[in-house]
Amino acid sequence: MNGLTEENIRNLLTQIKSQPSGRNILSDKMVKSVDINDQFISIVLEIDPTQAEEMKQLNALIETKLEKIKGSRQCRIILTSHVDSQGESTTANPSDKGPPPSLKPKNPQISATNAKPEKLNPEGVTNMIAIASGKGGVGKSTVAANLATALAVKGKKIGLLDADVYGPSQPRMFGLSGRPASPDGKTILPLRNHGVTVMSLGLMVPENEAIVWRGPMLMGALQQMLTQVQWGELDLLIVDLPPGTGDVQLTLSQKTDLFGAIVVSTPQDVALLDARKGIDMFRKLNVPIIGLIENMSSFKCSDCGSVHHPFGKGTLEAEALKIGTEVIADLPLDLETRMASDNGSPIVITDPQGAVARAFSDLADQLISTKLFE
Ligand code: ADP
């Protein structure tokens, strides 16, 4: 019983007791799917959302057991909540202040028993890419907003899904506020600005309110953003991921046909180290890396006009070479870029002839010339 097969995994899962029944988690039908992808195991567990805290211990136990299987490198557990007989999702508005559109999952796919969960590709969307980073604050959301706008300026139909659940910043970057409408109580109408169709969890919860997402809520929210938002016909949906390598990354990679991921990093060692983990995860999940973006690596001195590289030059380039990809954009540290984002208009709109806007325009041209827009 030591190979990495689904049968062996299921056998091991029968050894794990579920509470309070005292039976095992398989016979209690908690295990909704078992996936093996290049030595990477993922298990979807359906749980009672009130037990989310207690599940942490169980998760740790499952991960430890499964990671002992010969050939397995990592095990991830995705928690999903129970969908009751009326089809009500337990995905909640975590603020509980003023209801968001009352939503019922059209298709509670994660709950489908036994069979592999079906995909969550949004309707009408030709391609999807993810913008990722290893750590927060490196400019991932700035890149997502400006790239989306630059492509829209060039006539492409672009959507932006802000899945950075821990710090959704796209409403601020696009100057959007107010709850999205849900005329039929089933679908959500996204908002639109600067030619880009935008949906963010930040639009569903009051601004500045700390969002504590439990696993099931998170997965339900992601599912809704993908399948219940009326995205319309889009050439490309850009997904602004949370930083790191968590459940959102895993679910998106496994449940949608991502064309690829762009990884944003600053040149500092720590950011790069974290970015490497992200790249490694996408590789394991068979999501191609479109390229790396180096952000805030240089600045132009406003007094003498010379360009400085405070963190050294070429760090990301060397990293890209090592992993067989390339640096597809190199963006300077630029005060105007930050101010534009803070004021609700990406720099691509406010200063289209500036260095940063031109870098985004070039990046958009680069992408338009690839298979992504064929
Ligand atoms: P992340 O999504 O990685 O957390 P953000 O895009 O929110 O990062 O950027 C973090 C902060 O850095 C924001 O205030 C943003 O305006 C600023 N910022 C991002 N890129 C640049 C840049 N090239 N020049 C100046 N400020 C930037």
Low-pLDDT segments = 82-116
Major beta-sheet overview: 8 strands, mixed
Question: How does the overall form come out from the CA principal axes?
Answer: globular
Distinct ligands: adenosine-5'-diphosphate
Cα-based radius of gyration, to the nearest Å: 21 Å
Q: Which sequence of strands runs across the widest sheet? A: 6-7-5-8-4-9-10-13
Q: First CA to last CA: what distance?
A: 47 Å
Secondary-structure element pattern, one letter each: HEEHEEHEHEEHEHEHEEEHEHHH
In brief:
The protein is an alpha/beta fold.
Explain what this protein looks like in three dimensions.
- The protein is α/β, with parallel strands linked by helices and 374 residues long.
- It has eleven helices and 13 strands.
- The chain has helices spanning 6-13, 52-67, 140-153, 170-173, 215-227, 247-255, 269-284, 315-322, 335-342, 347-350, 355-368; strands at residues 31-37, 40-47, 74-81, 125-133, 158-162, 191-193, 196-200, 234-240, 260-265, 289-295, 299-300, 307-308, 327-331.
- Helix 3 (140-153) packs across helix 11 and helix 5 runs parallel beside helix 6.
- It is globular, with a radius of gyration of 21 Å.
- It starts with 5 loop residues before the first helix and ends in a 6-residue tail after the last helix.
- Residues 82-116 have low confidence and may be disordered.
- The structure holds adenosine-5'-diphosphate.
